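hi support,

uploading two proteins for the ticket. first:
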Amino acid sequence: MAQTATYPNDPRIHVDAEHLLRLGAKSRAISLLPRQPARSILNGRHASRLRGRGLNFEELRSYLPGDDTRTIDWKVTARTGEPHVRVYTEERDRPALLLVDQRVSMFFGTEVYMKSVIAAESAAIAAHRILAQGDRVGGIVFGDTDLAEHRPQRRPAALTRFLSSVAALNCSLNASLRAEPSVALNDILKQATRIAHTNALVCVFSDFDGVDEDSERILRRLAQSNDLILFNIFDPSSRQLTPGLKMTVSDGKHQIELDSSEPSLSDRIKASMDKRLAQLQQWSKRYGFPIVPMTTAEPALDQLLKQFGHLGGRP
C-alpha cells in the first residue's frame, strides 16, 4: 500500500545517497559483533547471539605445554602415538548481505516516515557499521520490478555503490506506480542463499509482505549456516488505526479509500498484520534468529540505538 501524496524533497518520504552516506558518522555506538550490551535485543531470550567470524584451519602440529587440550586431534594422536593439535586462526573478515525491501508495499506511512525510508536508513546504518568492523558488506536492493545485487566487498567505494542503489530505488517509489510486480520476497531470499553459503551475516529489512510456507523453508536454510537478523518494518496503523483517519491507498494497481471510523476496518487490518507477525515470531523461536521491530513513528537511528542496548536512543 502507498499513500497517494508524495513530497520528493521530504526526507520522511524519500532519501538520497548523500543522506545515507552521512548516517555513518552518527551510528558508531551500534555493533553487529558478537559482544552486545546487556539490553541489546540480540541478548533476548529467543534471539541467538551473533557468532562472528569463523575459523580457518592452519596446520596440524605436535602438542606443546600450554596448548588447549580441546584442540587435540585424537585420530592423529592415536595413529602416531604422540599428541597432535589442530591450529586455527580467525578469518580476517566475513561477508554481510543486506536485503533491502523497496517494493510499493513499503511506500506507506501514517506517522512520520515511510516504511521504505526506515528500511533504507536502517540498512545504511548497518552497512556503515559492518564496514567499520572490518567486514565485507554487500546486498540486494529490490523493488516490485527491479533489483540491484552487490556482492560483499570491503571497500568504501563498494559501500557507496550499494547505498546509491538503495537511494535510487527509494526515490523511484511513488503512488502512481502501475507496473505488474515481477520480484517477490521469496525470489530475493532464494538469491541470498546462493550468495551467503556459510558464516555470513544476513540482514533483511522489510515489512515481509508475501511471506508464506516457502519463506519459512528459505529462512531456515539461511539461519542454519549464517547469522540471520530480520528487521520488521511496520506502521502503527497495522496495530490500531488512528481515530478519524481517512486516506487513499494503492497497491500499485488498485486504489481504495480507507476510513478508520468504519467499525470492522481496524480489526481486519490488525488481524492480517498479527497473522504475519505471528508467523515470523514462530519461525524466530524455532530457528533461533532475532527479529528487530522498526516503526515508522521514530527515526531509524534512534530506534536502532535503543534496540541495541542504548536507552533513550543515545549511547
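and the second one:
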Amino acid sequence: MEYLEFELPIKELEEQLTKCQVIGEESDVDVSETCKQIEKKLQATKKEIYKSLTPWQRVQLSRHPNRPYTLDYIKALCGDSFLELHGDRNVKDDKAMIGGLGKIGDQTFMFIGQQKGYNTKTRQYRNFGMANPEGYRKALRLMKSAEKFGVPVVTFIDTPGAYPGLEAEERGQGEAIARNILEMSRLQVPVICIVIGEGASGGALGIGVGDKFLMLENAWFSVISPENCSSILWRSWEYKEQAADALKLTAKDSKRIKVIDDIIKEPLGGAHSDRETTFKAVRDAIIKSYDELKNLSPKDLVNTRMEKYTEMGVYKG
C-alpha cells in the first residue's frame, strides 16, 4: 500500500495495529483491548483526514498509483462479456484510448475511455493516458457504430490531457477533439460520461459530452491541471495548491456550478481503498442513468443534451 503525504498519520496507526496483532499472535499476552483502541483511533483519524480534503489533496488522490483505471472498471462491470475493438481505420490503434462492447446484466453498452499504465513499461505503452488524434478518431468510430445499432455509450474519463506532441498536432489533434465534441452532442443514443480520475483540458472533453455527466468524489475536472496553471501564472509549480483551489476543479465545485449532473460517492480513503464498493457504486450510477434515458426518443435525447450544454455559463442577474 502506498501512502500520500497527508495520509502518513494513517500509515503510522496501521503499522502500530499490525505490530500489536503480531505480538498477540506470537505471545500469550492479551492485546485485544489495545488493538481495539488503535482501530478506533485509526477510524477516527481517517474520518478526520478525508472529510476535510483540500482541492490539491483530491488531485493527489485522483492520481494515486493504486486507483482503479478504465479497464479495471470495465472488467468489474462486464466480466468476460467485454470485446475490445481496435483502430481508427486511418493511422493506427491508440493504446491510450480503449473501447469496445460489454454487458451489464442483459444490457449491452459501448464502453470508451482513457487507459493509464500500472508501471513504467505499461505507462509508456499507454502513453500515460494521453491519447493522440487517432485515439479520439477511434472513439468516434466506436460511438458512431453504437449509434448505428442503438447501443448506449459509456465513457470513462481519466487523462492528464490529450498528447501535445508535434506529430499529434500535425495529424490534427485539435480537429479530432472538436469533431468528437460536435458529433457527441448529436448522437442519437444515450451517452453517459464518468470522470474516474483526472479530467484535464480538451483531452477530457474529447469523450466528455453526454446526457449524464458524473464524477467520482475524488476526481477532478478542469481546463488545465493545477501544476500547469501555476507555471503559467507564477512561472513556477510551487503555487499548485493555490491554483487547485482557484480552479474550482473538485466534484463538489463542478456540481455546484452545474458542469456535472451528479457525484458518485467513494469509500472512506478513496476508490483504491475498497475497489469492490467503488465498482458497485459506478455500476449502480450507470444503470440509474440509463433507466432515466432509455425511454427518450432520439430527437428528445439530442434536444435535451443540446439545451443542457447551451445553458452552461448563462448568468441571470
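thanks. also noticed: The first strand starts at residue 83 and ends at 84.
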